[in-house]
Amino acid sequence: xxxxxxxxxxxxxxxxxxxxxxxxxxxxxxxxxxxxxxxxxxxxxxxxxxxxxxxxxxxxxxxxxxxxxxxxxxxxxxxxxxxxxxxxxxxxxxxxxxxxxxxxxxxxxxxxxxxxxxxxxxxxxxxxxxxxxxxxxxxxxxxxxxxxxxxxxxxxxxxxxxxxxxxxxxxxxxxxxxxxxxxxxxxxxxxxxxxxxxxxxxxxxxxxxxxxxxxxxxxxxxxxxxxxxx
Length: 230
Description:
alpha/beta
Protein backbone atom coordinates (compact mmCIF):
# COMPACT_ATOMS: atom_id res chain seq x y z
CA UNK A 1 0.00 0.00 0.00
CA UNK A 2 1.34 3.44 -0.93
CA UNK A 3 2.41 5.73 1.90
CA UNK A 4 0.20 8.65 2.81
CA UNK A 5 2.46 11.69 2.39
CA UNK A 6 1.31 15.21 3.18
CA UNK A 7 3.15 18.49 2.63
CA UNK A 8 3.01 21.58 4.85
CA UNK A 9 4.07 24.88 3.25
CA UNK A 10 4.24 27.97 5.48
CA UNK A 11 3.69 31.01 3.25
CA UNK A 12 3.89 34.76 3.84
CA UNK A 13 3.44 36.99 0.78
CA UNK A 14 4.44 34.37 -1.77
CA UNK A 15 1.82 35.17 -4.44
CA UNK A 16 4.35 35.00 -7.28
CA UNK A 17 5.83 31.65 -6.34
CA UNK A 18 3.32 29.55 -4.43
CA UNK A 19 1.48 28.12 -7.46
CA UNK A 20 4.78 27.09 -9.07
CA UNK A 21 5.75 25.20 -5.91
CA UNK A 22 2.40 23.41 -5.64
CA UNK A 23 2.26 22.46 -9.31
CA UNK A 24 5.69 20.79 -9.17
CA UNK A 25 5.06 18.68 -6.07
CA UNK A 26 5.14 14.99 -7.08
CA UNK A 27 1.87 13.11 -7.39
CA UNK A 28 2.83 10.69 -4.60
CA UNK A 29 1.70 13.44 -2.19
CA UNK A 30 -1.89 12.97 -1.04
CA UNK A 31 -2.45 16.52 0.22
CA UNK A 32 -0.59 19.81 0.04
CA UNK A 33 -1.39 22.19 2.88
CA UNK A 34 -0.48 25.85 2.51
CA UNK A 35 -0.60 27.85 5.73
CA UNK A 36 -1.22 31.47 4.82
CA UNK A 37 0.73 33.28 7.53
CA UNK A 38 -1.03 36.66 7.56
CA UNK A 39 -0.16 37.49 3.95
CA UNK A 40 -1.27 40.82 2.52
CA UNK A 41 -1.21 39.67 -1.10
CA UNK A 42 -2.88 36.90 -3.16
CA UNK A 43 -0.92 34.00 -1.66
CA UNK A 44 -4.04 32.26 -0.33
CA UNK A 45 -6.14 32.54 -3.50
CA UNK A 46 -3.25 31.52 -5.76
CA UNK A 47 -2.53 28.49 -3.58
CA UNK A 48 -6.17 27.46 -3.62
CA UNK A 49 -6.38 27.81 -7.39
CA UNK A 50 -3.29 25.59 -7.69
CA UNK A 51 -5.08 22.82 -5.75
CA UNK A 52 -3.78 23.18 -2.21
CA UNK A 53 -5.70 23.08 1.03
CA UNK A 54 -5.32 26.60 2.44
CA UNK A 55 -5.29 27.37 6.15
CA UNK A 56 -4.98 30.76 7.84
CA UNK A 57 -2.61 31.51 10.72
CA UNK A 58 -2.67 35.21 11.60
CA UNK A 59 0.12 35.03 14.16
CA UNK A 60 3.25 35.75 12.14
CA UNK A 61 6.05 33.25 12.52
CA UNK A 62 7.38 30.21 10.67
CA UNK A 63 6.78 27.96 13.66
CA UNK A 64 3.24 29.25 14.14
CA UNK A 65 2.47 28.33 10.53
CA UNK A 66 3.98 24.85 10.83
CA UNK A 67 2.08 24.20 14.05
CA UNK A 68 -1.17 25.29 12.41
CA UNK A 69 -0.59 22.73 9.67
CA UNK A 70 0.08 20.05 12.26
CA UNK A 71 -3.09 20.95 14.17
CA UNK A 72 -5.10 20.51 10.97
CA UNK A 73 -3.53 17.11 10.30
CA UNK A 74 -4.12 15.97 13.89
CA UNK A 75 -7.87 16.27 13.32
CA UNK A 76 -7.91 13.98 10.29
CA UNK A 77 -9.53 10.58 10.69
CA UNK A 78 -6.63 8.87 8.90
CA UNK A 79 -3.23 10.28 9.90
CA UNK A 80 -0.46 10.46 7.29
CA UNK A 81 2.63 8.31 7.35
CA UNK A 82 5.07 11.07 6.41
CA UNK A 83 5.03 14.86 6.69
CA UNK A 84 7.17 16.98 4.38
CA UNK A 85 7.95 20.63 5.13
CA UNK A 86 8.69 22.82 2.14
CA UNK A 87 9.07 26.59 1.69
CA UNK A 88 6.76 28.54 -0.59
CA UNK A 89 9.40 30.74 -2.24
CA UNK A 90 10.39 28.29 -5.03
CA UNK A 91 14.03 28.16 -3.91
CA UNK A 92 13.83 24.39 -3.54
CA UNK A 93 13.02 21.95 -6.34
CA UNK A 94 9.70 20.36 -5.28
CA UNK A 95 10.43 17.28 -7.38
CA UNK A 96 13.36 16.52 -5.04
CA UNK A 97 10.70 15.47 -2.53
CA UNK A 98 11.06 11.97 -3.99
CA UNK A 99 14.71 11.88 -2.85
CA UNK A 100 13.86 13.23 0.59
CA UNK A 101 11.12 10.74 1.44
CA UNK A 102 12.88 7.70 -0.05
CA UNK A 103 15.10 6.98 3.01
CA UNK A 104 11.97 6.97 5.18
CA UNK A 105 10.03 4.69 2.85
CA UNK A 106 12.86 2.32 1.96
CA UNK A 107 15.74 2.62 4.45
CA UNK A 108 14.05 2.75 7.84
CA UNK A 109 14.88 6.40 8.50
CA UNK A 110 12.64 8.50 10.75
CA UNK A 111 13.81 11.94 9.66
CA UNK A 112 15.52 13.35 6.55
CA UNK A 113 16.86 16.86 5.95
CA UNK A 114 17.46 18.19 2.46
CA UNK A 115 21.01 19.56 2.62
CA UNK A 116 21.75 22.49 0.34
CA UNK A 117 25.26 21.41 -0.68
CA UNK A 118 27.46 24.07 -2.27
CA UNK A 119 27.91 22.08 -5.48
CA UNK A 120 24.14 21.94 -6.00
CA UNK A 121 23.36 25.57 -5.13
CA UNK A 122 22.93 28.30 -7.69
CA UNK A 123 25.64 30.92 -7.13
CA UNK A 124 24.38 33.54 -4.68
CA UNK A 125 21.20 31.63 -3.82
CA UNK A 126 22.20 31.57 -0.16
CA UNK A 127 23.37 34.79 1.44
CA UNK A 128 26.73 34.94 3.25
CA UNK A 129 24.90 35.24 6.56
CA UNK A 130 22.86 32.10 5.77
CA UNK A 131 26.00 30.13 4.93
CA UNK A 132 27.80 31.37 8.05
CA UNK A 133 24.80 30.78 10.32
CA UNK A 134 24.23 27.25 9.04
CA UNK A 135 27.91 26.46 9.36
CA UNK A 136 28.13 27.75 12.92
CA UNK A 137 24.92 26.05 14.06
CA UNK A 138 25.81 22.66 12.63
CA UNK A 139 29.40 22.93 13.94
CA UNK A 140 28.02 23.49 17.45
CA UNK A 141 25.62 20.59 17.01
CA UNK A 142 28.50 18.33 16.03
CA UNK A 143 30.58 19.64 18.93
CA UNK A 144 27.94 19.30 21.64
CA UNK A 145 25.82 16.41 20.38
CA UNK A 146 28.01 14.54 17.86
CA UNK A 147 25.34 15.29 15.26
CA UNK A 148 25.93 14.60 11.58
CA UNK A 149 23.95 17.55 10.25
CA UNK A 150 25.59 20.01 7.85
CA UNK A 151 22.53 22.18 7.15
CA UNK A 152 19.33 23.50 8.72
CA UNK A 153 17.54 23.21 5.40
CA UNK A 154 13.77 23.76 5.60
CA UNK A 155 13.01 21.09 2.96
CA UNK A 156 12.64 18.01 5.18
CA UNK A 157 10.56 14.90 5.80
CA UNK A 158 9.67 13.08 8.99
CA UNK A 159 7.47 10.19 10.01
CA UNK A 160 4.26 11.61 11.40
CA UNK A 161 4.43 9.57 14.61
CA UNK A 162 8.01 10.74 15.16
CA UNK A 163 7.00 14.35 14.57
CA UNK A 164 4.25 14.11 17.18
CA UNK A 165 6.73 12.65 19.66
CA UNK A 166 9.01 15.69 19.27
CA UNK A 167 6.39 17.98 20.82
CA UNK A 168 7.47 20.95 18.71
CA UNK A 169 7.21 24.33 20.46
CA UNK A 170 9.09 27.07 18.63
CA UNK A 171 6.84 29.70 17.06
CA UNK A 172 9.31 31.59 14.91
CA UNK A 173 12.86 31.23 13.62
CA UNK A 174 14.02 28.31 15.75
CA UNK A 175 11.68 25.69 14.26
CA UNK A 176 14.23 23.87 12.09
CA UNK A 177 17.00 23.64 14.68
CA UNK A 178 14.51 22.62 17.39
CA UNK A 179 13.39 19.69 15.23
CA UNK A 180 16.97 18.58 14.59
CA UNK A 181 18.02 18.87 18.23
CA UNK A 182 14.98 16.94 19.41
CA UNK A 183 15.54 14.29 16.76
CA UNK A 184 19.02 13.76 18.21
CA UNK A 185 17.71 13.73 21.78
CA UNK A 186 15.00 11.20 20.85
CA UNK A 187 17.56 9.08 19.01
CA UNK A 188 15.64 9.14 15.75
CA UNK A 189 17.26 7.46 12.76
CA UNK A 190 18.15 10.39 10.51
CA UNK A 191 20.21 11.35 7.50
CA UNK A 192 20.76 14.21 5.08
CA UNK A 193 20.06 14.03 1.37
CA UNK A 194 21.79 16.54 -0.93
CA UNK A 195 19.25 18.74 -2.73
CA UNK A 196 19.43 21.47 -5.33
CA UNK A 197 18.79 25.07 -4.39
CA UNK A 198 18.08 28.12 -6.55
CA UNK A 199 17.35 31.82 -6.19
CA UNK A 200 14.03 32.34 -4.44
CA UNK A 201 11.26 34.44 -5.93
CA UNK A 202 10.97 37.65 -3.89
CA UNK A 203 12.91 38.71 -0.80
CA UNK A 204 13.61 36.43 2.15
CA UNK A 205 11.69 37.35 5.28
CA UNK A 206 14.60 36.14 7.42
CA UNK A 207 18.00 36.47 5.72
CA UNK A 208 16.77 39.34 3.54
CA UNK A 209 16.63 41.73 6.49
CA UNK A 210 19.09 42.66 9.22
CA UNK A 211 16.41 42.21 11.89
CA UNK A 212 15.42 38.79 10.57
CA UNK A 213 19.01 37.62 10.41
CA UNK A 214 19.76 38.73 13.97
CA UNK A 215 16.62 37.25 15.48
CA UNK A 216 17.08 33.98 13.59
CA UNK A 217 20.65 33.72 14.85
CA UNK A 218 19.61 34.38 18.43
CA UNK A 219 16.84 31.79 18.26
CA UNK A 220 19.01 29.12 16.68
CA UNK A 221 21.90 29.58 19.11
CA UNK A 222 19.44 29.77 22.00
CA UNK A 223 18.04 26.33 21.21
CA UNK A 224 21.52 24.84 20.85
CA UNK A 225 22.78 26.18 24.18
CA UNK A 226 19.52 25.29 25.90
CA UNK A 227 19.97 21.65 24.92
CA UNK A 228 23.70 21.72 25.62
CA UNK A 229 23.10 22.22 29.33
CA UNK A 230 20.18 19.84 29.78
